[in-house]
Amino acid sequence: MEAGGLLDSFIYGACVVFTLGMFSAGLSDLRHMRMTRSVDNVQFLPFLTTEVNNLGWLSYGALKGDGILIVVNAVGAALQTLYILALPWTHLSAARFRVVLLQTATLLGVLLLGYGYFWLLVPDPEGRLQQLGLFCSVFTISMYLSPLADLAKVIQTKSTQCLSYPLTIATLLTSASWCLYGFQLRDPYIMVSNFPGIVTSFIRFWLFWKYPQEQDRNYRLLQT
Q1: Residue 184 above 70 pLDDT?
Q2: Secondary structure class of 157 (helix, strand, coil)
Q3: Number of domains the chain is built from
């Protein structure tokens, strides 16, 4: 096999393995919730936004005929659906349930409007592909940038307890592999949308270095 073909296979494999690994990270959270029957610290919105993101990229991959995008995002959408259905809904308070229901209805509305627009009002396949790619790119970038408020909280509290080191590594590897994949295909939507994931991952690594979790635990013990 030529060097170029070997590199291509490595990038394809990295995209699939790292992305599915990041998606499956939710299994540990789900297992913890099912065992403890506690949803106090659970944020449902990331599950919903990831579902919409997967479905968007799945449609983009189907339009483009990209098997890697189709497989990865089909599995990702299935996993997110599993997480949402398996959550201990009966343990939610009435107020929290209304919030979750409103978030779900809003994102479903966005999804239906998006599909109606792209499939009914944009008849040209090439124009549909470009506009859908732009939508997916903007949505993915917003997802990568949404935790910036948490990063500001880390700096304010000098505590990284709310950050996950394994998830940060998974995000960096996944974002980097998709950037390479987008560069290889000369697809700006894939490449640009994943670059913020690399940037925010390095910001997290800097915070882990500046505010070590072991040091944070020792500080909290002294405070008690």
Answers
A1: yes
A2: helix
A3: 1
